[in-house]
Design goal:
Arc Repressor Mutant, subunit A, Gyrase A, domain 2, 2 domains, four-stranded antiparallel β-sheet, two-stranded antiparallel sheet, 6 helices, 18% strand
Length: 151
């Protein structure tokens, strides 16, 4: 996924979490007013990629259908991590909704996963340093497991 598309998906999640968005056209207009050049078909693909659902006529992230993680820090990670990608052999880049990166990074730090050396959090991005490439893959699997449990 391109960096621009990832940023656009994050912007869509921000938009639907801050105001009701009822149609694809409304979403395309909101993105356009934020400086994004989009078409109805690209918005439609984005909605599908994010698996958005309509509740009371407005787009939302999908409701949970499985049991939530039992540990509150795992729940914070499951709810907060939107994307996780490897960067090199010992770094992961996690994206969260705006303002959530620090909370998610603190949750990761408190869990003290043995493969994680440390985290650096911005507003919506976390750099997560791991011990080596194998550790990186294990952490990605842990993150995916948490995402599957909560979605």
């Amino acid at each position: 996924m391109s960096g621009d598309r990832r940023k656009r998906l994050l912007k869509i999640l921000e938009l639907i979490s801050t105001r009701p968005v009822r149609t694809q056209e409304e979403l395309a207009d909101a993105l356009s007013s934020e400086g994004w050049k989009v078409t109805q078909s690209s918005v439609s693909r984005d909605i599908t990629a994010l698996k958005l659902v309509k509740v009371d006529g407005a787009y939302h992230r999908p409701a949970r259908i499985a049991a939530e993680p039992e540990h509150p820090d795992e729940r914070r990670i499951a709810d907060g991590v939107l994307t996780a990608e490897s960067a090199g052999d010992a770094l992961l880049v996690l994206h969260t909704p705006a303002g959530e990166a620090n909370r998610v990074a603190v949750a990761i730090d408190r869990l003290a996963w043995p493969d994680v050396i440390g985290t650096i959090a911005g507003d919506d991005t976390i750099f997560l340093a791991v011990r080596h490439e194998t550790a990186q893959q294990r952490v990605l699997r842990q993150l995916r497991r948490l995402a599957e449990v909560s979605r």
